[in-house]
Amino acid sequence: MLLGLLLVAAAIGIWISAQNFSRLPNQSYGSETMPLALSGVALLLGLFMIVRSVIAGAAIPRATLPAWAETPGALVALLVTLALIVGYIVLAGRIGFVPVAIALVLILMLVMQVRWYLALPLAIVATIVVQQAFARLLLVPLPRSGFLSFLW
């Protein structure tokens, strides 16, 4: 039931956001067509899941902490991960993808208790692989910097 409720909420959010998309000139459809269709399908699926759980007599479960949250340092690791995501958003445009990604992956690995002599080369290799995959294969430009400019 909870998953059905989340799906209905997501469908409503998609539908609301798609209302501002522009239409094609002289057409009855536009860029909002696919999001509106997906929101309709998601809404129907969510309602189906809710009805099925009501028929089955299922109730909404009470919120409980998962087992991983009880391990020492797990909440700190979660907060650090969220802070690193915000850090990437703030810093990548100014400094560039490569140095920011290396630093953030390294910090994340150290928080997850990976030894530094493994974390540093893994952070460098992972960053270069991701950068090459996005730039060369997917043709998605990532924020640039002068650091490791030979990769471009």
> Largest sheet, if any?
none
Q: Low-confidence parts, pLDDT < 50 over ≥5 residues?
A: none
Q: SSE order in H/E notation?
A: HHHHH
Average of pLDDT: 84
- Report the sheet-strand fraction: under 5%
- Percent of residues in helices: 55-70%
Q: Label the structural class.
A: mainly alpha
Account of the 3D structure:
The protein is an all-alpha fold and 152 residues long. It has two domains: 2-56; 67-151, no CATH class. It is 66% helix and 0% strand. Helix 1 runs antiparallel to helix 2 (33-56) and helix 3 runs antiparallel to helix 4 (97-111).
Structure at a glance:
With 152 residues, this protein is an all-alpha fold.
Topology:
Elements lengths: L1 H17 L14 H24 L17 H22 L1 H15 L4 H22 L15
Helix pairs in contact: 1-2, 3-4, 4-5
For this entry, give a set of tags.
single chain, 152 residues, mainly alpha, 2 domains, 5 helices, flat
